[in-house]
Model the fold of this input.
Amino acid sequence: MIRLLLADDQDLVRGGLAALLSLESDLDVVAEVGRGDEVPHAITAHDPDVALIDIEMAGGDGIEATAAVTASGAHCRCLIVTTFGRPGYLRRAMEAGAAGFVVKDTPADRLAQVVRRVAGGERVVDPTLAADSLAGGVDPLTDREREVLRAAADGASVRTVATQLHLSPGTVRNHLSSAIGKTEVENRYAAARLARERGWI
Amino acid sequence: MIRLLLADDQDLVRGGLAALLSLESDLDVVAEVGRGDEVPHAITAHDPDVALIDIEMAGGDGIEATAAVTASGAHCRCLIVTTFGRPGYLRRAMEAGAAGFVVKDTPADRLAQVVRRVAGGERVVDPTLAADSLAGGVDPLTDREREVLRAAADGASVRTVATQLHLSPGTVRNHLSSAIGKTEVENRYAAARLARERGWI
DNA sequence: CGGCACCCCTGACATCTGTCACGGGGTATC
DNA sequence: GATACCCCGTGACAGATGTCAGGGGTGCCG
Done:
């Protein structure tokens, strides 16, 4: 019997996955949580073999949760199950110690197979996604550029961002200009959009 | 027996919902589609009583699909099941003739009840969402403002938007300025963000 | 009919943005 | 030590943006 933990902030999706996986005789959903930061506690409490974790969640994201589980040295292996197949997500998830990464577009009947392979010790990655990740290139932004871009992403002015990050307005503009250059777009918003799409911020 | 159609572009979610609903003895999932524009055809082919439709989908959105079903005069009733509880979505869905609207945060065991009530002829709306919709106010934007805002949302310059919509650059700027004023924010991007959040664009 | 709201356009203005050249300071690598 | 990054800052410039005050046109409604 493979013991499973589900982490997803949407009740219907979580319930659906539970129903789906429970159809398999060798899989047993032993716990469900709706927030990323509840994952470590649930793992110590229920000792699952595999944790299926979403990335975008209300309380703490799934990559951080995965990193926490990895750091704790728990027996449980983490399988990321996410909506967005962003190359940056994949890379960051693997760095955080994830044992698998699939998108929610995966055919439903294949999920159980993936879970079994992960439980068996394999690393399972969505093949098309892995190709994208290799082809799409890596994040060219520096830490500061990412930070500034993130702060400016939802329409904050230079002055606001500068105050927020304790920087001079000129410096903020320089970082933004650099990010715009690296992403080869016209302005900060397009740059932020692209960076988000690629999973860089 | 209540016959169901599922429309969601994510295989795992669709499969999960199917598994979840199939646990109920009076519900029967007779068809599944992964695109909004396949909904009308699937309805004529399988004659379901209730269609569970997502909004954000790859091929044609769920509100358009609902409108098409309503226009066709089919016996089938549409229940929107979506990730985002945006007031604008709710309003537009109801205008398109939806018989129900729930978010994916809904507890899994309540979905079957909602489906039964919709099948029985009731209109079922997420209560907190309905409150938001009434309190949050209506879309203050004009058709043109919405259009211009949408075109400018992902970082296009004024010139680009103007060419795209066959307008003068000055006119575009006036529309944007007006939208910025109505949304009470600082710039077009924040305005677009807010409009998207509210479901206006 | 007169308002009223929307649409389209113009021109002008202050401000914000994106870019460039330039400087100084820190750290890691060879 | 030289080199190469990265970080932070300045000053200056052209161009984009947001705002305002106009002008005409349409259609709707009291």
Remarks:
- The longest helix of chain B spans residues 169-183.
- The interface with chain A takes residues 9-20, 22-23, 81, 83, 104-109, 111, 154-157, 185-187, 189-191, 193 of chain B (CB under 8 Å).
- The two ends of chain B are 38 Å apart (CA to CA).
